[in-house]
Amino acid sequence: MPGPVDxxxxxxxxxxxxxxxxxxxxxxxxxxxxxxxxSNADREWCARVMxxxxxxxxxxxxxxxxxxxxxxxxxVVPVARLAGERCGFVLLHPSGVAGxxxxxxxxxxxxxxxxxxxxxxxxxxxxxxxxxxxMFLCVSSFNPRARSLYERRxxxxxxxxxxxxxxxxxxxxxxxxxxxP
Length: 181
Ligand SMILES: CC(C)(COP(=O)(O)OP(=O)(O)OC[C@H]1O[C@@H](n2cnc3c(N)ncnc32)[C@H](O)[C@@H]1OP(=O)(O)O)[C@@H](O)C(=O)NCCC(=O)NCCS
Fold this sequence. Notes:
4 helices; 31% strand; globular; single chain; 8-stranded mixed β-sheet; 181 residues; binds coenzyme A; Aminopeptidase
C-alpha cells in the first residue's frame, strides 16, 4: 500500500471535504480502500462496531463504554472505506505506551473481514506518526486469530497482564519496531 498522498494530486478522487486532513488520505489502488480521519458520526459507527463484536463483548464493553472511548479527543481515529462505505477503523493513541503510539482498538465490519482492510489499517497506523519508531497494541488471550495477524506483521509479545479486564483472560502487550525507508 502506498503512503499518504495529497488527495489533490489524485485526478480520480474528489477533493476531500475535510481539508485539514487531505494530506492524510490513503488510497489502495488494488482494493480501493480509502482511509481518512473519522468525523463525529464515524466515531459513533466505530463504537457500534466495537460493542457488537468480540473481543469487546466478552470483555464486557457495552455501547456506552465504547462510545466514551471512541469519542475521546486524544484518540486519532482513521476510518477505512470500501466504495465509500465505512468498513473498519483503528483507534490510535499518539503516545499511549512509553511515549510511543498505541493501537487501542482495531476492527472491521463483520462483512468486510478477511479482505485486507485490517492489514491496510495497521499499515496506516504505522505511517500515521512519521517520527514514531515503535508501535504497541494489546490483544486478548482468547483472540488467537487477531494475534496471528499481528505476529505475521512483525509484532512480538513484550508483556502480559493477567486477569486484567476479566478474570481468566490476559491482555498481551505486543510491540513492533517501525523501520522507516
Ligand atoms: C482483527 C481484524 C481487525 C482484522 O481485520 P481483517 O480485515 O479481517 O484482516 P485482514 O483481511 O487484513 O487479515 C485477515 C486476518 O485477520 C485475522 N482475522 C480474520 N477474522 C478475524 C476475526 N473475526 N477475529 C479476529 N481476527 C480475525 C486472521 O488472522 C486473518 O488471517 P487468516 O484468514 O489467515 O486467519 C478483524 O478481523 C476484526 O475486526 N476482528 C474482530 C475484532 C478484533 O478481534 N479486533 C482486534 C482486537 S485486538
